[in-house]
Design goal:
Elements: H1 2-28, H2 40-44, H3 58-61, E1 73-79, E2 90-99, E3 102-113, E4 116-129, E5 133-146, E6 150-164, E7 169-176, E8 193-203, E9 206-215, E10 220-231, E11 234-241, E12 246-255, E13 258-267, E14 271-281, H4 288-295
């Protein structure tokens, strides 16, 4: 009886992985499965922050925004069990180094499990003109490995721009996978995504974002979100999007040079999933927006 129970458990375990692998392989024919826009802060605002992009995770989302950060910064993001599946776990790490012309940054990503794995390393640079106009570019080296099916890699370029239209209003854009790279012989399995949007600071404590995202394979997606520093060390965030319809929310705990972020978002079919992130800002503490405005000499 004990042998039968163990055999049955092993069978169910293998069946789970087999079904999951089939799901991933079917998804692989249309897109790279890993998340492209990390950061618990960003996700809690429904990835509407293309016009804000003011922390180290801009290396993945809109590299031009890195030029606003005049301090060293490192960030770690982790989603341990998206929609209850540890096999979909993904993590990101990023580092920003400021220079007189802007910033240089590097980031890395890992996604998947032993049957299906994606890894990515990103190098980014941001330049500014008169501290009100920012441009950025990143080079990505992305690998994929599927057990018993082999592996492949691809290089692609991301571009971004960010412009201060007024002291409080910004316009941003980004293009991911500009050169339309893909894995294998199939086209389009690494998505090409274009974002543009506005970000408006009502004051140092409240920012509202509105953006439009276009994956070249799907309909336009409208995204909105806000960040509100309700007290000195606590931020509340929320966001929405359509195509697909999603709601997100989260909070940030900001103490000294540590920023601990949490986010969740809903999926119409799969339910709720959770993310967490940590950002360490070296040599600076306090209100992020205030520090940036001081650096950019914005009153």
């Amino acid at each position: 009886m004990k042998f039968n129970i163990i055999t049955q458990q092993t069978y169910l375990y293998n069946m789970r992985y087999s079904i999951l692998l089939v799901f991933l392989l079917e998804s692989f024919t249309t897109l790279s499965f890993a998340q492209f826009n990390p950061g618990a802060r960003q996700i809690s605002m429904a990835a509407s922050d293309v016009g804000m992009s003011d922390d180290v995770f801009a290396v993945f989302n809109n590299p031009s925004g890195l030029g606003q950060i005049c301090w060293r910064e490192i960030g770690v993001y982790y989603s341990p069990s998206p929609f209850g599946l540890t096999e979909l776990a993904n993590g990101f790490i990023a580092y920003n180094e400021p220079f007189g012309f802007g910033s240089l940054a590097v980031g890395g990503m890992s996604y998947g499990f032993e049957l299906y794995r994606e890894n990515k390393i990103t190098f980014a640079s941001s330049y500014y003109y008169s501290k009100h106009i920012f441009f950025g570019v990143s080079l990505n080296f992305h690998t994929i490995s599927i057990q018993n099916y082999g592996s492949d890699n691809a290089y692609y370029i991301n571009l971004g721009g960010l412009f201060y239209l007024t002291n409080n209003l910004r316009l941003g854009f980004s293009v991911q996978n500009l050169n339309r790279a893909s894995f294998g012989k199939d086209n389009g399995n690494i998505p090409q995504i274009m974002n543009t949007g506005f970000s408006y600071d009502f004051n140092n404590d409240f920012t509202f974002n509105l953006a439009v995202e276009k994956d070249t394979r799907y309909n336009y997606s409208l995204r909105g979100g806000f960040e509100f520093n309700i007290i000195e060390n606590l931020s509340l965030r929320s966001g929405f999007s359509n195509e697909p319809s999603q709601y997100s929310a989260g909070l940030g705990i900001n103490y000294s040079f540590f920023n601990l972020d949490y986010a969740f978002f809903t999926h119409s079919d799969l339910g709720i999933t959770h993310q967490a992130g940590l950002i360490i800002s070296f040599g600076v503490d306090g209100n992020r927006k205030k520090k940036i405005r001081e650096y950019l000499e914005i009153e």
